[in-house]
Amino acid sequence: MRVIPYLLLLLGLPAMAGEPPPADVVATLLRTGCRGACASYSVTVLSDGRVRYVGDRFVKVRGPASARLRQAELKSLRTAFAAARYLDLEDPSNCVGAIPDYPSVATSYDSGRRKREINHYLGCRSKPNEVLEKLEDRFDKIVKSARWVGTARERESRQD
Predict the structure, then answer these.
(1) For residue 53, with 0-12 CB atoms within 10 Å meaning exposed, 13-18 middle and 19 or more buried, which class applies?
(2) Which among 65, 60, 75 is positioned nearest to 26, based on CA atoms?
(3) How, if at all, do strands 104-110 and 63-68 pair?
(4) CA–CA distance, 72 with 145 (Å, rounded to integer)
(5) Structural element, H or E, at residue 54
(6) How would DSSP label each residue in 113-160?
(7) Which of 9, 57, 124, 137 could form a disulfide with 40 if both were Cys (CB 3.0 to 4.6 A apart)?
(8) Rounded distance, CA 47 to CA 24, Å?
């Protein structure tokens, strides 16, 4: 009966035609631009392993792209946030003497019990946060952001 999928769609439920159920956001990373050629992009990781990327400036791939993490990679991402004690990190926003025109990195994480967002200005040298910087880099490695962002050499050639 063709009416049922339409009815389910109207009710906001996934249709029987194989549409996957909605997945929760596990983690996000947003790198903002700077006055120079800093890569600007966002990555969202969902609980079913889907990865959504949107490239903005000074990246190899502009616009949306997607991929899927294996369960082991998704577990590695969760482990990286737990090992960094992300949910308990000191808030880096109280910066004194920030260097202007540096990029920021906004991250979020949902452990299933607690959620947190952190906006990390990389020009803050009064309170450097090596733990957070390592986590941000680890996030990029786990989701393989480089396939979309490109290498430094590939980004240098961009005239965004």
Answers:
(1) buried
(2) 75
(3) unpaired
(4) 17
(5) strand 50-57
(6) S-EEEEEEETT--SS--HHHHHHHHHHHHHHTTHHHH--HHHHHT---
(7) 57
(8) 5
